[in-house]
Design a protein that fits this description.
Blueprint lengths: L1 H14 L3 H9 L3 H11 L4 H9 L13 H15 L13 H6 L3 H17 L1
Helix pairs in contact: 1-2, 3-4, 4-5, 5-7
Length: 122
């Protein structure tokens, strides 16, 4: 397995992909789907399983409510700004359509600015 995961990392770097997309190409699934599968087997609540499964593609499980899935998606994208050294391949981008649907565009920009300012002061 470590060699196969190294293959996913190399593919992400070579083809400028987000890591979860490279995982999909190499393994046929990503850490999001595998994590959701395990969480489901362990009996965790549906909302947690759904959040794990769709945190890279929240519009695939769209909800009109601002829920855990939406916030995890946003935080995942912001975390990549704060810790760019941890990025394999290219950073994943926030779903702009999702931000618009929930009127979160301004808040996201504010959060993004805070992250960037904090990173510069470190």
């Amino acid at each position: 397995m470590p060699e196969k995961y190294e293959e996913a990392i190399n593919l992400a770097e070579k083809e400028k992909l987000c890591l979860h997309m490279a995982e999909q190409k190499v393994f046929g699934s990503s850490h999001a789907e595998i994590g959701a599968y395990l969480l489901n087997i362990w009996g965790l609540p549906e909302d947690i399983v759904r959040t794990a499964a769709f945190h890279h593609n929240p519009m695939a499980a769209y909800s009109s409510d601002i829920d855990c899935l939406i916030m995890v998606h946003i935080v995942d994208c912001l975390e990549q700004l704060k810790n760019p050294i941890n990025i394999v391949g290219v950073p994943c981008s926030v779903d702009e359509e999702l931000l618009k649907l929930h009127n979160l565009e301004e808040k996201f920009l504010t959060w993004q600015d805070l992250i960037l300012k904090e990173s510069q002061s470190e």
